[in-house]
């Protein structure tokens, strides 16, 4: 019997010990949870105390700016004031300081006459309605959601075409409020504004553009807009650069703007000066135009009888110059005045065109000369002269009297019918005598006055008919004139 009761008693004791152990664990877990709860409550209420070496530390005063139980609207008393009116309404004008940090100058468009700029625009003013108590004198920073509930300056960009506030990943707006009511309002904005450009010296020009800021609703009696730190209110990134321009100077100015219907307004200016890089236009415009002019001069060294070669060369240079002029004007606004590049291109075009006209004149005179020679040869064949040797010899003797050279004599050696008689003399003198001895006497026994007239007429005839001389003079006149033009052009515009 005792042997049966012993295992049962052991089981009972084991179960009791397990129950006691379980109760002990539950009690410890509840104690730990209660301790954590008390610490959490102390942390939220600001009454947590720590002891070190048996001494208690003084309590830290609560900061309402860091209290999670206080809403922003209640702290700034947004619901207690009417923020549709400016601060100190009815009193003196509220001063609003402005400073700008230029992030990038994105593009300059000559066709649209505008520029695009990305900048950080910051406003500074004081609104006592937003003051709050803070033992640490620390400011509070908010995003753009609070901006819609308070008063902010209504600054806009004068002469702007497009502008927007960046919103990636949220609206790029920052509002910082200080305990004494001072406010910093900053936003990141990209604006495209008009710029009045003068292209009379293009592409050797410099342009000055301005970005203008002004209050839209408040006149100078309600809002005084000013640069917060003078010229130091404008800061730029040193890495700002443009492909076609060199940024020379950024500076700030301010003045009053008057509108006849509303009054006077404070206006702030961001001025910057740009100087155009000339190297791009030298490669794309000036060098090709100069090469086309020089190429047109090659025709002066080509034989005048090579009509296809000289005509095709002249037409090619003229069409190429027309293409260059069209390409330059396509990227420019349609202004009503002459630009510097227009002067250079059109003068170059005139030189190319004159080279074509020069060959037209040479070809025409050559044709006239050939026609005259043909008529004289035909007339000589129709005449029956008994002895042309004596006539030729007498004519040669007359031409070699010191007035004409051997080359002139050779050029007229084939003439058999009155080559020495001017065209403007009466027809009676130009008739060929029926007898050869009369021609010999007419060529060799002329009077002194008639000889002088014949020599003058032959000089003019030789200059006109000698087409090689026109090309020879053109080889010197055309390059010399073009070089002289370049000297004047670059000395005036550079």
TrEMBL record:
Membrane disposition: Multi-pass membrane protein
Signal peptide: 1-34
Lineage top rank: taxon: Eukaryota
Annotated GO CC locations: chloride channel complex; postsynaptic membrane
Transmembrane segments: 278-299, 311-331, 343-366, 476-493
Subcellular location per the Swiss-Prot or TrEMBL entry: Postsynaptic cell membrane
Span of domain Neurotransmitter-gated ion-channel ligand-binding: 72-277
Gene3D superfamilies on file: Neurotransmitter-gated ion-channel ligand-binding domain, Neurotransmitter-gated ion-channel transmembrane domain
Primary subcellular site in the record, as a coarse category: membrane
SUPFAM superfamilies reported in the protein's UniProt record: Neurotransmitter-gated ion-channel transmembrane pore (SSF90112), Nicotinic receptor ligand binding domain-like (SSF63712)
GO molecular function, one term: chloride channel activity
Residue ranges, annotated region (Disordered): 36-71, 416-435
Basic and acidic residues bias: start-end ranges: 60-71
Alphabetical list of PROSITE patterns matching this protein: NEUROTR_ION_CHANNEL
Protein keywords: Cell membrane, Chloride, Chloride channel, Disulfide bond, Glycoprotein, Ion channel, Ion transport, Membrane, Postsynaptic cell membrane, Signal, Synapse, Transmembrane, Transmembrane helix, Transport
Domain Neurotransmitter-gated ion-channel transmembrane: 285-490
Catalytic activity: chloride(in) = chloride(out)
Family: Belongs to the ligand-gated ion channel (TC 1.A.9) family.
Official protein name in the record: GABA(C) receptor
